[in-house]
Amino acid sequence: HKKLVVKEVLEDKLVIITPRGRPLAVKKRWTPKDLEGHPFIMHEKESAPRRAIEEFIRKCRISVKIPLELSSNRAIKRAVEEGIGIALISRKVANEEIRAKRMHAINLAHPAMKRKFFLVHHKDKYLSESLRLLLDMVFDWTSQYSKELK
């Protein structure tokens, strides 16, 4: 639409997390077929992350075992640390555990493993000072968020 301004504010990378010290973690980069048959810890049904992962699995024509469905990223990370399975999760969400070497992150060689977030506003609408401050805060936060992923 010509009257909308669309700005990408953040690109978030998704990674496969595995328990440390497992043979799964040896390979630095996986293809979708490498996920075939692995126990996969999932978000609860009907959640946005679950739908995205199910769509990815369907498009790649792979099958995975689902030993556990959980409602929080924290619980998913703990289940992976305990060796129950692997999970697909935001690199930022798992960064603390990865840096502390409690789990390993594996990049997945697939373009769908990035999420992009956008800010949209009407081109001709007045932006109040409060809204401009909010936009500045969003851009500052996303800049810091992106730096922490490196």
Q: What does this molecule look like?
A:
The chain is elongated and about 55 Å long. The protein is an alpha/beta fold. Strands 1, 2, 5, 6 and 7 form a five-stranded mixed beta sheet that branches. The protein has a two-stranded parallel ribbon with strand order 3-4. Helices cover 34% and strands 27% of the residues. The chain has helices spanning 48-60, 73-81, 91-99, 129-148, and strands at residues 4-19, 29-30, 42-43, 69-70, 87-90, 103-108, 114-122.
Task: Describe this protein with a few key phrases.
two-stranded parallel ribbon, alpha/beta, 150 residues, single chain, 4 helices, 5-stranded mixed β-sheet
Describe the protein's topology.
Blueprint: E1 4-19, E2 29-30, E3 42-43, H1 48-60, E4 69-70, H2 73-81, E5 87-90, H3 91-99, E6 103-108, E7 114-122, H4 129-148
Parallel strand pairs: 2-6, 3-4
Antiparallel strand pairs: 1-5, 1-6, 1-7
Counting helices, strands and paired strands, the structural category is alpha/beta
Shape: elongated
Annotation field: number of helices = 4
Which series of helices and strands comes N to C?
EEEHEHEHEEH
Oligomeric form of this entry?
A: single chain
Report the biggest beta sheet as strand number plus sense, adding barrel if it closes.
5 strands, mixed
Give the radius of gyration.
18 Å
Number of strands: 7
Relative strand content: 25-35%
Give the low-pLDDT segments. none
Helix content: 25-40%
Span of the ends, CA to CA: 34 Å
